[in-house]
Every structure is written in C-alpha cells, then in structure tokens.
C-alpha cells in the first residue's frame, strides 16, 4: 500500500510539473480544445510499431486517445466498459491507450492490457505528447475526427456507455 501511495504521489508530481510547464492546467471549459486541430504526435506501441497522427490521417481514420495508468481505478472502470463498446467501431475508428505513469514500463503496460483483454493499441506516453495535449491526470480522453479536429475531450472521470456510443457514432459520421 505504501508503494502505491508513493507511486501515486510521484505520478501526480510529475503530471503537475508537465501541466505547469505546458501552461495547461485546466480550470474551466474555456481551455477546451474541442473544435481545434489536434497536435501532431508520434509514439511507439508496446510491440514497437510506430503510431501517430500521421498514420491515422493517411488512413482517413478518426481515433480516440485515452491517457491512462495501470493502477488508475477510474481508468480500469472506463476501459472495462470500453471493451464492450469499442469492438463494434474498431474497423472504422482507431483507439490508442497511452500510459501516463513514467514508472510503468512498456512491458508492464503490455502485460496489463493482455491480462485485461484490451483490444486496442497500447503505447507508453512521452513528455512531448503529454505536454502537447496538456495531460495532467489519468483518464483524460480525446476524440479526433478524420480532419484532425478534436470533437470530444474529457478529463478525469468515467464516461458512460451512452456517451462513448455517441462519441464513436459522431466520429464515423464525420
């Protein structure tokens, strides 16, 4: 328990620093990025495959970015729900779960995703990607349409099935 508390403190401190450096502490809806172009980004999945905004643009495919940590119970709840919804949209919408905890290795993310049966891409986050998106907490989500426009943004909290159904349907219709 002490290890988890220490880890949570370290991650919170790192995420706060990243958010502070980026000037992205979200205090109100005035900072929403909905309707704006998403930042360009590139990562390597836990399997070593390159994934980024350019790949989704080239495929003319909308996508969702979900920033998470293996120990985040809110993330676990939402991703558990997502497992039931996403497969219906997987052919038409990309989904990348991006790790935010710098103490979690790609191997740990991969093992966790496999043990929980997550059917989407998993990638460790990097400071540049977290900073570009202003991510300062786990369970931060963005939906990006085919044109690279952010159509949905949500911070910490569990999105329900109906919300995600609408998000995916809107992405497909865009």
Structure report:
This protein is α/β, with parallel strands linked by helices. The chain has a single domain (2-173), classed as Glutaredoxin (3-Layer(aba) Sandwich). 41% of the residues lie in helices and 18% in strands. It contains 6 helices and 7 strands; from the N terminus they run αββαβαβαβαββα. It has helices at residues 2-22, 53-58, 73-85, 106-116, 127-133, 161-173, and strands at residues 42-44, 50-52, 63-68, 94-99, 121-124, 140-144, 150-154. The strands form 2 sheets. The chain has a 5-stranded mixed β-sheet. α4 links the parallel β4 and β5. α1 (2-22) packs across α5 (127-133). The longest helix has 21 residues, at 2-22. The radius of gyration is 15 Å and the shape is globular.
What is shown here, in short?
The protein is of the alpha/beta class and 174 residues long. It is built from six helices and seven strands, in the order αββαβαβαβαββα. The chain has a single domain, classed as Glutaredoxin, CATH 3.40.30.10.
